[in-house]
Queue: 3 jobs
Job 1
Amino acid sequence: MSTSRIRKEVDAALLAFVDRQRPALLAISPDLAPMLAALDALLTGGKRLRPAFCYWGWHAAGGRDRRDGIVAAAASLELLQASALIHDDVMDSSDTRRGQPSVHRRFQSLAREQDWSGATETFGEGTAILLGDLCLAWSSEMYETSGVDGEHIARGREVYNLMRTEVMCGQYLDLLEGVRGSGTVEAALRVVEFKSAKYTIERPLHLGAALAGGTPEVTAALREYGRPLGIAFQLRDDVLGVFGDPAETGKPAGDDLREGKRTVLIAQTLERASPAQAAVLERLLGDPGLDRAGVDELREIIEGTGGLAACEAMIDRYAENAAKALGDASISGESRIALEELAVAATTRQA
Amino acid sequence: MSTSRIRKEVDAALLAFVDRQRPALLAISPDLAPMLAALDALLTGGKRLRPAFCYWGWHAAGGRDRRDGIVAAAASLELLQASALIHDDVMDSSDTRRGQPSVHRRFQSLAREQDWSGATETFGEGTAILLGDLCLAWSSEMYETSGVDGEHIARGREVYNLMRTEVMCGQYLDLLEGVRGSGTVEAALRVVEFKSAKYTIERPLHLGAALAGGTPEVTAALREYGRPLGIAFQLRDDVLGVFGDPAETGKPAGDDLREGKRTVLIAQTLERASPAQAAVLERLLGDPGLDRAGVDELREIIEGTGGLAACEAMIDRYAENAAKALGDASISGESRIALEELAVAATTRQA
């Protein structure tokens, strides 16, 4: 079973779940069709990283003989992620997601096109909050109704609950750093750990291991591999948010700079910046009207100070630690190959 | 077991659940303390109607011999409601909730007091979105870990899932009516049905019956009682939103008018208004700066046209239908008395 084959199965499971909900929603009111259309559009994109780590964690932990429901349980993480993305975009006022208008922008446009009289901005944001809530509710519904047997679902549920609390707390700490602006590498790394690293890689692996009823040893080994890989993944994402190709990231160039994200990359840059460079960075970072020249100026500072090189060195170190942990783990050849492949996908220089 | 005794048990179960989460959050970071404080403050208030209907539905459906976990399962509805309130207040830009600052306002104040440099408004709203998400995640966690046995939890989960989808869809339809402004009694009633009536009364009773493993007959009878009572409850809430005493409602006088809510009361008024009255109503309704004189002018129109009387007549009719359905139900005397008491609490002229 290859990683691309699992990806297709995850896509099919997601579609099947939403298709089961569709008639119930339209029975409440045909006016709910735009909500479903927005969700369909959002679910078309994405790398399905979290379901993949969950599936291969399950596989590596010895679950491969009881396959019932595991793909649907893993795919439910994609609905949790959809919820996080929709709400993130409201919080950050992002215009785009996965190369398309963000959900709140989509509904603002709908209201304008239909010439509705009320406040279109409020309508867009309110709808996005509700669709994110629906995705969050549906993620647990999809998990619970996946078809995995009750004993393993219950074991996994503990990890699922922990993961949700961690990611929401991590997001709060991220917002807090944004307004408080302590700007240290340490504070930025704490956000990375909870908002992203655990949520994207360590906990999905952990969940998979729990769903397989894996031993404490294999569970610990998978988490040992997942923890540094998760950090490397987010640091790569931060670099791509500044230097990535919009065609690959699905976001305009320098969008993270416009949003003023206090990433490890920025903290590494500030640690190395001259007072003049730091002043430019503090002035331009978070400017919603930042143009191409401003993006270039910031990129030069981030590269020139050595901030970028320091961040790349961190990525290499964390990725090496992950590879070493994977090498030490007692798992089958098939899952090892898949997890090596996923490690590359999570930290590659393309989005 | 009286309704006030159950209320105290629900309060204790909620506190115990949050107290179990508290150390885990503070271990992630002491910076999460304000999130917990905001939740503690919000959970202090509220009438606990949904847990009460769930508990007494369970009781009426014959669950009273296996009491393990039922109070915690019922109390989890209060976390779902906390999520809805926090997100509602962001969507409506409400300043107050249960007589205190709304969550987003609370965090805006915190950021200002701490003199944080970033955008305080965005921080407040972002935090409220996240705390609402956390409450939504915790509601299902509290339900699943309530201690009710697996078979009954699974039966109830189907109702729980349906209820969450319905309330979120109902909220979208409410937003949609707000911007589209069709203004008919029929459209307003459809919002009432899904956003409020089913969610507050019919489904909590249904959930309780499922958790008790009740017969189809008693389940149907409870829902028959809950459906009209839920509508009467929301119509009463709409009247209180315009005419209620701020000391009782925990909201400034006329707040629903300032928010421009398209309630059944407003639709009933518009159906009866002269062109001049309708013009005043359309001009003043939804004006965020509406002062006391404007509130009084709108109140006079709502009373003068007979809109208020029409709405009161609807409340009486729905409440009578509920009472008749309860009278016909084959349930024990103790649960009948409790459900009669709850019907009064849900439709009384005080908030």
Job 2
Amino acid sequence: MVIVMNPNATGDQIKKVIVRVHNAGLRTHVVEGESRTIIGIIGDKKAIMALPIEALEGVEKAVTISSSYKLVSRDFKPTPSVVDVDGVKIGNGSLIVMGGPCAVESRDQLMEAAQIVKAGGAQFLRGGAYKPRTSPYAFQGLEEEGLSYLAEARAATGLKIVTEVTEVAAVELVASYADMLQIGARNMQNFHLLKAVGRTGKPVLLKRGLSATIDEWLHAAEYIVNEGNYNVVLCERGIRTYEEYTRNTLDLSAVGALKHLSHLPVIVDPSHGTGKWHLVRPMSMAAVAAGADGLMIEVHPNPAEALSDGPQSLNPGNYMALMHDVQRLAEFLKNEVR
Amino acid sequence: MVIVMNPNATGDQIKKVIVRVHNAGLRTHVVEGESRTIIGIIGDKKAIMALPIEALEGVEKAVTISSSYKLVSRDFKPTPSVVDVDGVKIGNGSLIVMGGPCAVESRDQLMEAAQIVKAGGAQFLRGGAYKPRTSPYAFQGLEEEGLSYLAEARAATGLKIVTEVTEVAAVELVASYADMLQIGARNMQNFHLLKAVGRTGKPVLLKRGLSATIDEWLHAAEYIVNEGNYNVVLCERGIRTYEEYTRNTLDLSAVGALKHLSHLPVIVDPSHGTGKWHLVRPMSMAAVAAGADGLMIEVHPNPAEALSDGPQSLNPGNYMALMHDVQRLAEFLKNEVR
Amino acid sequence: MVIVMNPNATGDQIKKVIVRVHNAGLRTHVVEGESRTIIGIIGDKKAIMALPIEALEGVEKAVTISSSYKLVSRDFKPTPSVVDVDGVKIGNGSLIVMGGPCAVESRDQLMEAAQIVKAGGAQFLRGGAYKPRTSPYAFQGLEEEGLSYLAEARAATGLKIVTEVTEVAAVELVASYADMLQIGARNMQNFHLLKAVGRTGKPVLLKRGLSATIDEWLHAAEYIVNEGNYNVVLCERGIRTYEEYTRNTLDLSAVGALKHLSHLPVIVDPSHGTGKWHLVRPMSMAAVAAGADGLMIEVHPNPAEALSDGPQSLNPGNYMALMHDVQRLAEFLKNEVR
Amino acid sequence: MVIVMNPNATGDQIKKVIVRVHNAGLRTHVVEGESRTIIGIIGDKKAIMALPIEALEGVEKAVTISSSYKLVSRDFKPTPSVVDVDGVKIGNGSLIVMGGPCAVESRDQLMEAAQIVKAGGAQFLRGGAYKPRTSPYAFQGLEEEGLSYLAEARAATGLKIVTEVTEVAAVELVASYADMLQIGARNMQNFHLLKAVGRTGKPVLLKRGLSATIDEWLHAAEYIVNEGNYNVVLCERGIRTYEEYTRNTLDLSAVGALKHLSHLPVIVDPSHGTGKWHLVRPMSMAAVAAGADGLMIEVHPNPAEALSDGPQSLNPGNYMALMHDVQRLAEFLKNEVR
């Protein structure tokens, strides 16, 4: 951390800042600039973070130099991590696809979706049994009944199951059905939930919060890993901006940024990221080309009848065409470019 | 809802949309525009919201005309609500202030803070015993120990206690100590938690999510009220924007907007809203003048030693001066202008 | 500026950075942190700003410590500036109001508006003769004809005229009619235009860009002042955020921030800032309480017939009521609180 | 446009709205909903846009159904446009690259850059002779001297020249040197400048404004095309969001959105879009895969000595590697996938 003093800070004020820092067991490095004094702080990150330095008189601002996450950082582990979900590896250079409906709506809908997802070559079936919805009057999910259909679809197809868990109380139950636990955007900073899924040891798919910075997102992952669970995959799903044409703004630069800052695998969800089915194909191709380890794609046997997020779901035909293209692209990139 | 068809949508596509709407038990109203057909949908809000119309062929977009919250709306209840917190009324035209430290750090710190808060004339003591923090390594709160100090401070001063609850499992415990339950910004869409505090019947202070629209915020309130608990007070605490000088951008226009759309009382938190203590005074004055029913202000006996959010906390002197000014302003507005 | 090196930067890379800085005539201060090296740079701000340090190998990031504007800063001139517009002073503690229609639409409309504005007690008449419009098909203003009506309205009422200039070629013409030149939000970084109005020496009202940071805004003001024209007044008019209920998000914390960072007067435009006439009153009151030196208010004799921005214009009755309230509030604040 | 009345609007208020619309030569379509009346307006887009309906009593809001741009829309011209820049075609399915330094700094720098750009296989040389800079103290460009170096580099390499014009007064001069005129992000809504470049008939590269919606961007293009100049290419260069790791958030979904809404070609600038050279490669690959017609890439012979935007410039080695990869990718996509 670097403390920037006011140009008119007194010597006494500067001294008090230094004493305050030293009292916290940290070292200082004072630099007299042209117009103001700057004080560098050296020492333990956690102790530095705990300092309310801006509350001291004469301080203009405090600038954080390095982030406080550690276990998820590339500095800590320079090689990319591979997350193994019951034999399916995420992050080893092969493209992974998680397909399926936004919500599990019925046994028939899910079984039909699973067959399509499987036929296209995806490795995972997605589908929400617990749906966080803006309105209390919208469909909230089939809960355990939905989980049982997911398990049945797995038995029928061999697909791995990734599904969202939305509360601590349901973690054990969801973990007993799912191969991978999804933390949704709204719960990215539900720290109790992060710790709870961390303690399960199960692979976790951590979606980016709607207005989370990359730094906050990696801190959220740190909560999980800090419980001893390194099986974390990050999922970019669009951020909230002023643009209204798309539901969210899919931030593909996050893929490269995360690869630079962290060792965790990264996948992309262009369905939620754009909210429009006709943008799913171009953004899927773009995500793969940007270096994503996988895709999460909404597929519905009949989008027009979906109980949730129909406008962004692919129908079976579009899904099959997309899978063909992204797989060929991934193969090309693996063999000929990288 | 209004469905906007593509300019080149076929008659067959238009027909299919209409059939789909009718099958959902809704009525349609077709308007042939200059270049495209528009279909108005009439009927039950919930049924309309559940339609995935944009997934149908030939549909350009679906435009939502009216929101789906009901119980919290001004249409539903045209007169302002007054929330009674054990005798203290919020929303009756008098200014309410909730003061105190961001976090309960120790018995001494809290008791000292409570005396200051009381001396300034506030009605509530605030202070977090459970602190959601971006980093797992930051101070996370004293938990039940903190709650007991809050109760002790209440006994000593007569101040009402408002404190945050961050998980369903702790609702009962926190409710046994607090007079009012606070839902923090990160949990505004933690729907399980909203329902849980709704079921307690206790007054709830619902903070706006970091990137929540006013519409989403009112839907979150609807989750609480839908459980039968009408004792909800909304708290504007700044939204996330591109501006970096302030921690958040305090959206004071939300006060007037909420008064227009809803009957619930509204208070403002300029401490989190700006992140800088020197902006707390001007934004407190502004909030009162904008028509807020109350303020939530961070006060710390010694901000430079705070374990959390020191830079935005007022010291005792600044707090006393602020209280004098906002109270005089509130009185002036009540007697001479409104 | 502080340069943060990668944790694994080599000694050679660090050396090269230092040499590069020294070659630019600047001094360095090297701090060896726990996990990485940090290099402080000391010297002339302009020389520091010109360094493309992040392009050097081993550099993680460069953190700017202090801004490069100077003439508009409070460090440079610690006392508030008062801008004199032909005898009317902005920034001397009295509330200034600029009222009038968004656009000059006709002689009759403007003369009627001017009489209303005058009757309410405002000092300035506003009204656009040149209107920057999103669509090429929207009303673009009466141009010089509009300016002549403004001059006529001034003659009739004694109000000062503030009106927008949108291109360098029109600066001389507009300056020959207006008492104060307005730079609109879209032109806040039209640097040619800033220099041109700077050269006139006329008072300038500089509106904040739609997504301008406070830092960029002050730099834009610096462009004007750097031409020798210190008669600059800043106008907060709302920033673009994700919120859709209001046209923009009026950032009232900018008032206090600007007062802290700069000596220039600040006014607020709640009409553009909210886009809804029913929010103009609460946000006007809030702006005054936040310490603004003035208000810019849209008033139209008949908002429902306005050619531009009718929904945010006050009708004569609402305007008169507002003026009564804001003037009483300003008086109260001046005499009893500050 | 659809007018949504308040639930408690009176019959008289509804009648007045209808009369107001009819007086503007438009037709209405009244729909009685469950709780409120909705009035559809049919007729000429321009007349509809000019209505200040929200200013009428009893109106809750007015919802715009279709945008007012026309000439640039896909509805107007269903086939993609190809822009011919002196023989080089943009939008015909081949990848176009515009490479070069952010600013023309010297004859040597530019000639060296041009040789590198040419060697990599790009078709255009970019480089700013007029630089809009946030600070008045930053390097502002070599102006006409810079233009002459660009012309010299064209003579030496055969590359086409694209360079920014920042004011109406310089349009003729820049057009006499350049093959394509660039409108920068800050000038996207400088309507005088848009009309001026429109009148030249020269190909125009229109960058997206920093916080421009796609709708506003297409309206800006409409200003140019409305002058009779259809040679417009759109350039996505990142939008302003809350995320701080990247300089901007590159919105690649804009590529697909623009292809859906408009017939104009679209290119992407990942250098400004990310602000970090190490993100240029992944985002270039992603842009190509998303369907962009071209890329604009910053290349500098020696980024560490650049006077502007060094951190986001590729050095020659990285540029050559990138060109190899994007060209192979474009070829693959053209031949095997699309």
Job 3
Amino acid sequence: MRSHRYKLDELAQLVQGELIGQSDLVLNGLASLEQAQPNHIAFVNGDKYLNEALNSKAGALIVTAELKDQLTTHHNFIVVANPYLAFAILTHVFETKVLKRGIESTAQISPSAIIADDAYIGHYVVIGDDCVVGANTIIQSNTRIDDGVEIGKDCFIDSQVTITGQTKIADRVRIHSNTAIGGEGFGFAPYQGKWSRIAQLGSVRIGNDVRIGSNCSIDRGALDDTILHDGVIIDNLVQIAHNVQIGENTAIAAKCGIAGSTTIGKNCILAGAVGVVGHINITDNVTITGMSMVTKNISEAGSYSSGTGQFETNHWKRTVVRLRQLADVPLTKLVKQIDHMQAQLESIESTLKSRK
Amino acid sequence: MRSHRYKLDELAQLVQGELIGQSDLVLNGLASLEQAQPNHIAFVNGDKYLNEALNSKAGALIVTAELKDQLTTHHNFIVVANPYLAFAILTHVFETKVLKRGIESTAQISPSAIIADDAYIGHYVVIGDDCVVGANTIIQSNTRIDDGVEIGKDCFIDSQVTITGQTKIADRVRIHSNTAIGGEGFGFAPYQGKWSRIAQLGSVRIGNDVRIGSNCSIDRGALDDTILHDGVIIDNLVQIAHNVQIGENTAIAAKCGIAGSTTIGKNCILAGAVGVVGHINITDNVTITGMSMVTKNISEAGSYSSGTGQFETNHWKRTVVRLRQLADVPLTKLVKQIDHMQAQLESIESTLKSRK
Amino acid sequence: MRSHRYKLDELAQLVQGELIGQSDLVLNGLASLEQAQPNHIAFVNGDKYLNEALNSKAGALIVTAELKDQLTTHHNFIVVANPYLAFAILTHVFETKVLKRGIESTAQISPSAIIADDAYIGHYVVIGDDCVVGANTIIQSNTRIDDGVEIGKDCFIDSQVTITGQTKIADRVRIHSNTAIGGEGFGFAPYQGKWSRIAQLGSVRIGNDVRIGSNCSIDRGALDDTILHDGVIIDNLVQIAHNVQIGENTAIAAKCGIAGSTTIGKNCILAGAVGVVGHINITDNVTITGMSMVTKNISEAGSYSSGTGQFETNHWKRTVVRLRQLADVPLTKLVKQIDHMQAQLESIESTLKSRK
């Protein structure tokens, strides 16, 4: 393993922070406050971590100016406006990167494929006819790139990935292991009591800086393409059906499923396990909370939800009994009726009083 | 890539439609109305696409007789009763098919496996002892077929698939990439505070014309087999647990999960992300809408649902507050009480009136 | 295929049961009551299977003493206190085990990796620098073990698995096909309207006797590790996000998702498709029923639920109409108001009576 050793002033410079303390302190890791050792740097993400920071063994801390003054147990700091962002930057410094370049002898590459000289193609990778792999792109072992797939530069494709359906991938795209891209969309025409398969002729287009997790399925379009625009980030086990379009910088958490031909706008956030039906539109800047079911267009930015959090099971069972009665309870009419009855009662009482 | 060029009269014949216009018009693609160019044919799926069709650049349109008369901007048509079905048929004509046959030199095939001469076995495929692969079946690269698995003819198995557990697969079955078939069912006996593994001895049987998407898990049975009957179609990321049986022509959309030993009938439709508990029966011709939870037998054909669509999040939060109160609100009793009180009120009012 | 032939007295001894009947009866399979033939042994899991047992063709039955007396159609028994546990034990006897040992010629093993002599490494497996594979561990074909991963003894890793992120795996761990372990956690810092990737520097630690199904994603931690403690069992298509910790002997059914930094205690059971939000704690001995959403800490052992089972769709639609009104219906206040009105009514009626 390659060693990562930096002096505190080097790290301060990388995050454009102010160095306080011993500039030549050598640090060889980034760690959590709890796990950090004297050779590690850690970051303090706000007031609520103050106690943890005071007790941390970290050799140096990334903090705001306000926090620094309270951390009397420490002497070495990098002071920045946004410690979380500085941490995000330093993760890249301490990351173990894939340094290999070239094509492993066991990779099977079609003679018509064009592979950049400084790409890396791992063992047992299979690359089909007319494929393109751009500069500095890494394809890990056992992955399969089918005919006509094009991949840009500076991409990272992990192992056991299948890319087919003539998918076109732009630059700086990351695809994690065991993901299937460009597979056949789920298109069938009912015919004489059976399902008649519709071969899928569209493709998948993936923009710059897109990130796709492991075990995802992103299907090719039926006729037009499935499209992930620049900056889309997708977690693990996500289903993107044929002809879905996802706008720039939208984030989709694990286990979401987007049904066919749905369009999602820019800068949206779908929390975990959200389901979205097919053939609808969701506008820009929409947040959907976890496990929600989206069944209709969303045309106004905002936050949307469905489902409920946990109930103690006996409470929940009694609630469900009531829910099953609810359809036959005309709630708003009852509320009006009760108000009306209340008025009647008061009128009767006043009549009775007057007749005393 | 193989070129697909057809004259309009050839295409009309393939879908048994009536040709209107230029019979020797050459078309080399099937496209959506919006994306079609003059060398493409498109289809018009009903009245609601009339405007799109009028503005389409498609060289020819597949339409019904009624629609044709309104499409004054176009001159080349194939007239059929069901344009969607004609489109489904033509997708097969324009599809890029795998034409390779034979066994790639890097495939590892057990000497006791029987591979049909005109099958295709891709690079780095591993096929175990006593396996059978039928005529015209295609197995893409890096897939693994474990000992004792049998696959019929005209099947398509994409890359990174694992088939184990002595699974038996009939003819014309399609299995998409990264799917796991025949894996060990989740069977454990609780014993002295720990989980004691139950080795799974059953298998998986897959009928003719079954289609399974990518990233699915279909487990082998504990003792008897897990069974997918003829014509079952399954989308991506679907879990089929041990000893599940699914009836003919049932369709299961993405992200569904069927727990162990459940039986689902024929011609059912499970929309996306439906969950079905174990050890229940669902009869034929049942539709379950998206994200529903099925916790009990369904013995009558029909449509079933649970969950709700999205609420604006603040509305939803107030709704959940009420839901948590609901268990203690005797709804139907209250409705009766209110009715009774209303009657009492009216009786009192009439008494008061009579005593005036 | 290796033959499994045992005499009835051998099987009785293996499960420490009492043999009744023909001690030298040869049995070559374990089967369900329904499918069993005279050369099979079956088990009777309680009274409710009595009729099935009476009609079974099984050559021998595993039963309790009470059940035995009622099974007048049978003569060969193994009598035990817990037939289900005896069955669990015998599945291991009849299981077809992987007997191969050694390294297939096509496996790519880094010179710095240490592989135990009696491990099995399948075709096209790729093992990176500084890896360790322990004694009697089986790694099936096409799996990839990335640099720095360590695997203990007696483990079983099926095909198409990817293990990366310097994951450390203890002994007797089973990982099924197409699972991704140690992939990058979904960590991004929002920055200037885009998502800035946080490289993940933590790892995954997996205890003894852990079982992970197929198509699972278990991500490496951001700084600290993601941890599965001893005896955890996980079904298929499960998402375990970065920095999750799962306590001993907790069982997680298929399609669950646990969001980042959540801690789950010991001996918990999560039924199918449960979702748990990030950064919460669930204590020991908690059961979560199927498809529940857990949004808050659970600090008391017990059973928790959300969602509802299926409604007939028209009933459900009317229910949802009411649910959407519910936010504006002050339920507990109304119940009090109705009680109060009832009291008022009674007081009025008594007044009227007294004035007659």
